[in-house]
């Protein structure tokens, strides 16, 4: 069943201890869509400028991503530049040019509206909300957010996530949103805000899933070389929603559903780990479903006892 | 089969956001022994002063710990005082009085020498080495160390761990010892130094086990309240060695052995998590084996997918 992905399609300048690229395809929507495309029909809603490169469009189209909702407007694509610390645990944003993204008003094509799965990348909460309202027949909707919206747009964010089925968020943001340091108590508070399924991403330490039926802990995948972590969180989101869409997951599945949610978290972790192996989305040029499933099975091997 | 535990028996002054105790039983040997005592016959080698409290001796004796190797000398017990940060991720040492511990020269009672399991708490590497040499018929020997020995006693430490079967170490210390940030590569380097089994403790994020047959990742247990993390790492060590001793684990067990090592890591995590629930070793006053096994099964529930 199909997934609609809404968010940024951008260009990034990235410097890691392994090297530097001045301009490479990026944006939450890009990473989510590329990852979800291994599991389900994926449709994107985003905006690009007239500098959007044909070969980048081809990367998405080559993965079967539906680009009908990719709006093209005069001007330049969203551009973001960052540099990572030596251990890659921190990054500093050097430049953020919103460009055409400043006027982004996501319009859902008629052919997308009855898609059962919706995932909202990190954009202004009011926009996320307007997208949600343009859809009908949703089985599962949710998304991501970030510290900026939590701090300065709190009411708007709370009104938005109230109707979400799931929220994906990193640990420091979860603590900020809940106003609570303890992860378990923070999770309980956030679930009272609306999303009955909560995934807290913990970077190299894995992820924690909370749902009505309990919780699930996934370790991080140990890579011998983290080349570039840009997009890993969004790839996690894409693997998560992609797998659930492939399975036709439904919130009403109860206990069986909880196991599927855990597997979705592992697929999320798998996609996030592959993303780190090359600069930007380069790993997706060669990544196969067989490689993804093999790494999923590896997770079984190193977590079973 | 019995375990010999060598290390400090001390008094601690502890301040956490939940309160403060001026003087409570502590020391690596204490925590390791209390934890191991749920699984196997446990014998300690340590030194205390004439201020060692009868009721603290009773806590150990009450858990069946063999105190024949507990040397009593004139003077005061090792005393250590610390204060934890608000989020309890950092602690500051306020005072370290070695007292009788300054002259600690561990002597293994004849009745201990043929014990098959030996675990060396964090003490000077040369002392750890001398203990190892006093034992005969060991099946499994190893222990813990810390940044101080890694930095200032590197050669002595390397000579000591060369003959160890296992090393337990936290993640920042593993990186320091290996001179390598990436955890997987750091693990490979450390295993070349001697210990063919390596457990890297990651605090609230769990633990990673490396052995000849691959690796295993254990998540941390999510507590709703971390009351006092003092001793958690040592309790991990005690649960780990205790379980292996209970099973009569032998390095030559190969693949079956690898699964037992994983279970030992989970038992270590279980004991470490219980330790955090009360000040100092207070949780051990009521903790039962049934509670330990119940939490072990909980780990299964929240890691299976």
Question: If you had to describe this structure to a student in words, what would you say it looks like?
Answer:
The structure is a homodimer of 305-residue chains. In chain A, helix 3 links the parallel strand 8 (117-120) and strand 9. Chain A is of the alpha/beta class and 305 residues long. In chain A, helix 1 runs parallel beside helix 8, helix 3 (125-134) runs parallel beside helix 5 (154-161) and helix 8 (232-246) runs antiparallel to helix 9 (254-275). In chain A, 36% of the residues lie in helices and 25% in strands. The two termini of chain A are 34 Å apart. A 9-stranded mixed β-sheet of chain A has the order 5-4-1-8-9-10-11-12-13, with helices on both faces. A 4-stranded mixed β-sheet of chain A has the order 3-2-6-7. Chain A is built from 10 helices and 13 strands. At the A-B interface, helix 7, strand 13, helix 9 and helix 10 of A face helix 7, strand 13, helix 9 and helix 10 of B.
């Amino acid at each position: 069943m199909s997934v609609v992905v809404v968010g940024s399609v951008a260009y990034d300048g990235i410097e890691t201890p392994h090297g530097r690229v001045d301009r490479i395809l990026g944006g939450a929507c890009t990473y989510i869509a590329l990852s979800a495309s291994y599991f389900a029909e994926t449709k994107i809603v985003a905006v690009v400028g007239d500098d959007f490169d044909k070969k980048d469009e081809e990367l998405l189209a080559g993965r079967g991503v539906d680009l009908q909702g990719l709006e093209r407007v005069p001007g330049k694509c969203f551009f973001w530049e960052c540099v990572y610390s030596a251990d890659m645990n921190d990054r500093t944003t050097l430049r953020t040019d919103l460009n055409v993204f400043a006027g982004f008003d996501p319009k859902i094509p008629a052919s997308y509206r009855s898609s059962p799965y919706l995932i909202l990348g990190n954009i202004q909460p009011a926009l996320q909300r307007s997208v949600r309202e343009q859809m009908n027949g949703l089985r599962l909707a949710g998304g991501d957010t970030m510290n900026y919206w939590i701090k300065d747009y709190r009411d708007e964010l709370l009104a938005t996530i109230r109707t979400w089925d799931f929220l994906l968020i990193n640990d420091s943001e979860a603590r900020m949103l809940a106003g609570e340091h303890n992860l378990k108590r923070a999770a309980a508070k956030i679930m009272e805000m609306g999303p009955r399924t909560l995934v807290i991403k913990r970077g190299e330490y894995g992820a924690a899933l909370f749902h009505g039926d309990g919780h699930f802990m996934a370790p991080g995948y140990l890579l011998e070389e983290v080349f570039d972590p840009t997009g890993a969180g969004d790839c996690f989101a894409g693997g998560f929603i992609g797998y659930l869409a492939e399975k036709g997951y439904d919130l009403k599945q109860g206990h069986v559903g909880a196991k599927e949610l855990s597997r979705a978290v592992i697929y999320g972790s798998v996609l996030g780990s592959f993303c780190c192996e090359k600069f930007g989305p380069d790993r997706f040029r060669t990544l196969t479903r067989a490689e993804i499933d093999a790494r999923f099975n590896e997770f079984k091997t190193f977590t079973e006892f």
